[in-house]
Structure prediction request, 220 residues.
Amino acid sequence: MTFFSFWNNPVPEGFGKSRIEALADGIFSVAMTLLVLEIKLPPAESLPSHGDLVHRLLALESTLTIYVISFLLLGMFWISHHYQFHFVQRTDRALLWFNLLLLLCATTIPFSTALLGQHADLWLPFLIYSVNLLLLIFFLYLHIDYLARHPELASPSLTPAVVRSFKARQLLFAMVPVLSAVVAFYSSRPALYLYLLLAPLHFLPSSGVQKRRAEEDKSS
Prediction:
């Protein structure tokens, strides 16, 4: 048995996708929880009035914003991962490793979020945060591409149209971190709020999936 045949050899039957799905759910939930630990009031003596407290809370605006953005982004990536795994029937070693690398990138989101929250006026944290997100998108892309090239692992419902739809959506998502990193070189605040564009992009209808569902409804 060669190295490559060992690498691509499917996991024995009976060892399905449930364990990697459970691992992904756990890692995403922990990463999303860790984000909130970075929201802290600056150390200070007892505040004399409600106005002072409100002023302190308003000072956390950028920290709260990046927390909300990162939480929503992790939620979107979890949904995308869950959705793509809907088309997985069985796994092999390569597919497992693509998912482990994706989860590795997910675990670094709290770090890049904290870095950005503490140094939102600098360009380098924006670059690190953008690269972190681009790596997540990259491994989601590799996941669906590998699945499309190995139909023995995939559900018959993973048609070429569905694959193209997934890939187009991921390439569209990748434009936002790139654009944010470029804008951050000139101004940090609009670069931060550019990430909110990912929310409407996430809810764009998927033409490939809609077409598949229409065909299924027609055949039934």
Notes: Residues 121 and 187 are 8 Å apart (CA to CA). Confidence is low (pLDDT under 50) at residues 10-14, 213-217.
